[in-house]
Specification:
The protein has helices at residues 22-33, 51-71, 87-90, 105-111, 139-149, 171-182, 202-206, 218-228, 234-243, 248-256, 259-270, 278-289, 294-317, 326-336, 341-360, 365-377; strands spanning 40-44, 118-121, 159-164, 188-194, 209-212. The protein is an alpha/beta fold and 382 residues long. It folds into two domains: 12-212, P-loop containing nucleotide triphosphate hydrolases (Rossmann fold, 3-Layer(aba) Sandwich), CATH 3.40.50; 257-377. A five-stranded parallel β-sheet has the order 2-3-4-1-5, with helices on both faces. It is elongated.
Amino acid sequence: MSDLNEHLPPEARDNAFLCGHEAAEAELRTAFESGRLAHAWLITGPKGIGKANLAYRFARHVLKASKQSVEAPVISADAGLFGALPAEEVEFEEAGGLYVSPDDPVFKRVAAHGHSDLLGIERAWTDDKKKARKTAIAVDDVRQVNGFLRLTPGEGGWRVVIVDAADEMNANAANALLKVLEEPPSRALLLLVSHSPGRLLPTIRSRCRRLSLNPLSDGHVSTLLERYAPDLNPTDRDTLVQLSDGSIGRALELADEGGLEVHRELMDLLGDLPTLNMEKVHKLGDKLARKEAEAAFRTARDLLHWILSQVIRESATGGAAGAINGPENAMNARLASLAALDRWLEVWEKITRLMERADGANLDRKQVILNVFHILGQVGAR
């Protein structure tokens, strides 16, 4: 297993690299240059696809443009608005891109939390060691926004607030943000990152222009894995691409939390169904029950949920939806043939409830694994 966080990319505020969202970049830049920029944007999509990266990328673009409008720089006619791009970025930049070089003073100040016209709101740390964050964005965090936006911009341009993620606000924090959205100051820009916009107040959603990001393509996830996890062999990288569901964040978490190894063990056990190799089941249960294996257990839970969803899709579509590769497609087809669709849905619901209870009810994790495979062993049993 890799060391925890070995492959995690830079934080969004100091990550200059983004790929796969060129159309969204172009939409933001066009809106900004039109002079009719919406004061609030809701940037939505699955976790780990680059929403926060895009928000900070746009913030840097706006802040740099504000600074340039004051300084009135001379711009080369053939260099574009921000000059030539580094070679590594050219492949992913369109004419409407938002790239700002890491060497730019604006980029450096944003990365260092030192730009007076940018405020980032996120869940606070639980303590000074910064090893864990609180469960929600609190009202005191959001109350900073109103005072911040009513200050005169330090560089004479825009003041920008990024909330990451907006659906992590508690009820009081959401109401406090709504008051800001109802009466936004001039030249104020709010960028709300949201994984689950349905959790937000309808009144918050209605006061924002929505920008929906799609999951990344397999090619983009593979490119990002090569960038952030260059030590992966091609086979493991391809597996992570398919397990990622278009989320580089999910792929990197799986790489760091032993997801490849757990995935192989699960597939080995599932490949024996309806027969159970109890020695292997106990071995997996012992491994996931160790005190230090909480992350691995969550990974196993998520992977099992994903694998079963593939089997259900196979059962519902007869294979038309595909799977992650040839051998596993064949296994999914075999598993789907063991029982009717309604039976697999019943199994999926039982296992999902059982594994979700494991944390909240402090259940013995090995016993949970044993129970899960007992349920699976009954599928198609004669």
